User: Which sequence fits this backbone?
């Protein structure tokens, strides 16, 4: 789960990371009031979860409260990579002398939390990795000992932190690490970590991405989820316990298991169609979850056909078949449905589907071809 | 056969739970030697229609029954500790089926088990079945046919799909292993490929990967160096959009790395035939010289 900049800063501030928090605003008037409270020049920043805010004109300086109001009026409502800006962060402007990148990641290769540091701050780390990989330090931390002073010194000297700011740097990295561990993060980065002309070390931007699997023990962080940037259907799916990602095609897919769901999408494409979604109904799905999945798929007006692919194991084929037939009664619109159910109780499932005169398929390849054909016919009608 | 066989003496942690009971019965039915269960607080009871004794701790279960392998069905919040309990109680091989374990919890567990010399498969994996030997986990027992092809996969139901396709085509399996879809798993593709490579009963190998990470690329390099047995592969997620997590925590394409194309190229470079559909795996195996 990606967190907005202001949420990320809120977490880092709790752990003592030096930063200029600022205030959020959803109207130009609020932005003006925030700038008045802050005093002096401010920066008005679009709060969206996509990169490239600055280039898109979503980050602007304002010398006084009146200007802050103007800037907020320009930024609020603008679209950045398809996301409408609804919130801005108004923060004190900083006069930057030097910028660093400092991040922590869950390092799958090292099976550790790794510190990532670069003296080329303000640029995306992926960009630095391409253009100047030698400028990046990647330091895996000991899985049991965590972040130690010698680790901090190593990063500090690699980055060339000015001597009088090394203590603040240690506070920053320690805070970032504690925030990462105690929030169950996948990523926590400060970019840029800036040295200002008046000699302060400050986190000017922050990004925290949380591990969805860790959220059960952080109900407070779950509250930080930005539903504004999540597809409505994805929110509904999450609440129903379904893994769902909306795509742009015309063939709705309902599958059990993530790997099989991806494969089903791939085979739709191979058959000349485009998948409308990734959908994994999860293990042991019963009629109610099947019905919820149909509702979510059909909520997308682009869907012209639905492909159901179930390999029964924990999930029982007859339960799913019954769910399909029941759900069909209540569906808001009629689209052709191709159903393939194999594995546990597949024979019972076939009988149920045959009575309901649904298009069935034996193999996954066959199901994909039939679904693509059905979508074409449906689209022509 | 690798990992599990007739000598497996299985302990099920979480045997009295809904999933634990259901799958333990299926394992027993398959012929797996399920010798004990552990549910703290239910020691002294008997699970699975009185067939399997239940203990409060893994230490007791091992002492009383000689269990050497564990299969874990406990909830995500308790699973990391259950893995450690098994490892510190003399169990040499642990399968963790549980999904949704926070990744950070697995870091210490991963390294401690390596230090203890205990093998962990998973978490978030379907387990392993040695056909005609033992089934540990949740892979349906009736989709297999005995034979000489080893299969290793990161998925669950996709594994079943490929196994079924092989069985339907008359190609039997030695052992099928799911290593799990999480970012931090105990056993890698390379670990399993190494075991299959040394297993005299395995003559060919199928590998089922998916987008995200670079485990498939590393496996390809290992195959090029070490493996002389014929191989076929499938990679799921060619149509997955970048930056989105496709169900499995591990399945995410980031910064252009971990795409199906890069994995396919690496595998083909290593001489592995890569299928466009799971149903093509049998013909690729035939082409690689696997007999009926």
Assistant:
């Amino acid at each position: 789960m990606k967190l907005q900049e202001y949420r990320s800063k809120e977490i880092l501030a709790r752990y003592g990371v030096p930063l200029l928090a600022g205030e959020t605003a959803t109207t130009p008037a609020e932005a003006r009031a925030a700038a008045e409270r802050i005093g002096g020049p401010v920066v008005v920043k679009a709060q969206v979860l996509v990169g490239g805010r600055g280039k898109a004109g979503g980050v602007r300086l304002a010398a006084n409260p009146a200007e802050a109001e103007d800037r907020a009026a320009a930024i609020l409502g603008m679209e950045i990579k398809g996301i409408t800006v609804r919130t801005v962060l108004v923060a004190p402007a900083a006069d930057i002398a030097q910028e660093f990148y400092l991040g922590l990641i869950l390092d799958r290769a090292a099976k550790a939390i790794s510190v990532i540091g670069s003296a080329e701050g303000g640029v995306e780390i992926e960009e630095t990795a391409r253009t100047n990989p030698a400028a990046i330090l990647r330091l895996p931390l000991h899985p049991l000992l965590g972040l130690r002073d010698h680790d901090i010194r190593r990063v500090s000297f690699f980055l060339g932190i000015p001597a009088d700011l090394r203590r603040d740097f240690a506070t920053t990295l320690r805070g970032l690490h504690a925030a990462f561990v105690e929030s169950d993060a996948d990523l926590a980065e400060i970019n840029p970590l800036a040295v200002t002309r008046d000699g302060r070390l400050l986190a000017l931007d922050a990004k925290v991405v949380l591990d969805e699997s860790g959220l059960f023990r952080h109900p407070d962080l779950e509250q930080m989820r930005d539903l504004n940037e999540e597809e409505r259907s994805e929110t509904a799916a999450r609440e129903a316990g379904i893994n769902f990602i909306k795509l742009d095609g015309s063939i709705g897919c309902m599958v059990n298991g993530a790997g099989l769901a991806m494969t089903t999408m791939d085979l739709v494409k191979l058959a000349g169609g485009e998948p409308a979604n990734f959908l994994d109904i999860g293990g042991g799905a019963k009629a109610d979850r099947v019905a919820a999945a149909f509702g979510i798929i059909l909520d997308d007006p682009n869907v012209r056909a639905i492909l159901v692919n179930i390999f029964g194991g924990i999930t029982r084929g007859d339960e799913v078949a019954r769910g399909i037939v029941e759900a069909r009664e209540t569906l808001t619109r009629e689209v052709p449905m191709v159903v393939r159910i194999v594995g546990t109780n597949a024979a019972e499932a076939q009988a149920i589907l045959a009575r309901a005169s649904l298009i069935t398929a034996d193999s996954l390849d066959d199901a994909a071809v039939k679904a693509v054909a059905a979508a074409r016919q449906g689209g022509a009608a | 056969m690798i990992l599990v066989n007739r000598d497996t003496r299985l302990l099920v942690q979480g045997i009295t739970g809904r999933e634990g009971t259901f799958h333990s019965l299926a394992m027993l039915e398959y012929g797996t030697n399920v010798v004990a269960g552990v549910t703290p607080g239910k020691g002294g009871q008997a699970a699975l229609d009185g067939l399997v004794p239940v203990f409060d701790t893994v230490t007791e279960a091992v002492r009383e029954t000689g269990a050497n392998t564990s299969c874990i069905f406990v909830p995500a919040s308790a699973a990391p500790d259950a893995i450690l309990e098994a490892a510190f109680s003399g169990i040499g091989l642990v399968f963790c089926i549980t999904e949704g374990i926070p990744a950070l919890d697995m870091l210490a567990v991963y390294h401690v088990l390596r230090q203890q010399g205990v093998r962990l498969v998973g978490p978030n994996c379907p387990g392993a079945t040695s056909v005609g030997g033992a089934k540990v986990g949740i892979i349906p027992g009736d989709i297999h046919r005995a034979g000489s092809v080893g299969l290793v996969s990161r998925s669950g139901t996709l594994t079943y799909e490929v196994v079924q396709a092989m069985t339907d085509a008359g190609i039997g399996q030695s052992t099928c292993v799911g290593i799990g879809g999480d970012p931090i798993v105990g056993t890698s593709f390379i670990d399993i490929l190494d075991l299959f490579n040394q297993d005299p009963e395995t003559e060919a190998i199928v590998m089922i990967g998916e987008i995200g990470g670079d485990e498939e690329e590393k496996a390809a390099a290992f195959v090029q160096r070490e493996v002389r047995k014929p191989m076929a592969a499938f990679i799921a997620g060619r149509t997955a959009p970048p930056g989105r997590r496709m169900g499995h925590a591990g399945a995410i394409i980031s910064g252009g790395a971990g795409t199906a194309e890069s994995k396919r190229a690496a595998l083909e470079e290593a001489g592995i035939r890569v299928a466009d559909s799971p149903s093509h795996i049998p013909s690729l195996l035939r082409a690689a010289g696997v007999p009926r």
The mean pLDDT of chain B is 93. Residues 96 and 123 of chain B are 5 Å apart (CA to CA).
